[in-house]
User: Fold these one by one.
Assistant:
Number 1:
Amino acid sequence: GILAVKNVDVGAADTSIAHADADLARAGYGLGTLDERELAIIGSAIEQAMKRWPTRRTRRRRRSRRGRHTELRSSLRRALRTGGEPLRLDHSEQRHRARPVLALVDVSGSMESFARAYLHLTRALVIGGRAEVFAFATTLTRITPSLRRRSPIEAIDRASDDVGDRFGGTRLASAIAALLANDHWCGLARG
């Protein structure tokens, strides 16, 4: 794919155009070739894009003037104040909640050149919305709290320090099994 980012504010500097064009994408340059500045620009662009996080409907309702569902209990309670005459009906609509995102980042030795870039991208997801991020090589480590830091460099360095087995071997099946064995995190996998 082609990534085009225009007019992204990174700190105090305003970058007019930062994009990886189709020629670079076709030439095989990937996230591993980007420097810290370019990763910060992409991360900032993702944060801006996440202002409108995808939502899902919940079973709960909230009061609304234009809701499609009539709230009988509150309408009848209000009618008791007027001698049993329902002068006004209460309505409700379904609530919407941000969709959870679960990200697994492979920080094993074979992914060493991409790990920092993936951590920048997942940090943008954590900052922009409701995301949980786990890193794995031989063991599974939750790094979401580390990625919540405001400074991208500090967040990535902290997340890298949290993963004790980074750039080692890979045990993908045991990492996924550990994630699915935990009832709380397993629920996020279902969305």
Number 2:
Amino acid sequence: GECHPCKTKQCRKCNSNVITCDECEDKYYLFIIPGGKKDKKCLPVCPKGTYKNGKNCTPCSLHCNKCKSKIPCNECVQPYVLHLGKCVSNCKTGYVKVNGKCVPCNDKKCVDCDGNNLAKCNKCKKPLYWFNFKCVPKCPKGYILVGSKCMPCSKNCHLCQKINTCKICKKGFYLYKEKCYPKCPQGTNPV
């Protein structure tokens, strides 16, 4: 028989066809080139999306760019976001995307919050209502429920049943045609 050098550079052992490498030289890692052909290369560093696993470069989990083992992932391929060690297309309810990671909102009753201020809630879990970036069981006096948000009644109004209309004015104001005035309009008297 004859001895033939392996075709792959830095290859220590190759199979009988000398094309396919089975083991790399020291300080090199066996990497299977993606694309179905199962071609292999010996590399000094495992490429993105793979990790050192013994003498091999093993692929990270799906859509993962950086990992030290199959799970958890440390960084996802754009546009995916990292949620509890996995790459997902969107953050789950109660989480918001911050620097490529899903981070929980400060308030557990919050469905969606501001990525720059996790305490600032944008939407609440039912049956709660949104009020000044917080979740409340009912709207405070001077506010009316519109959809799932507590919106302010008209100016100087203490109690309203519809937005821009008033039922009871704040102390020192007078109700006239569903609006509050500091004094009764001309042609009317306080009762």
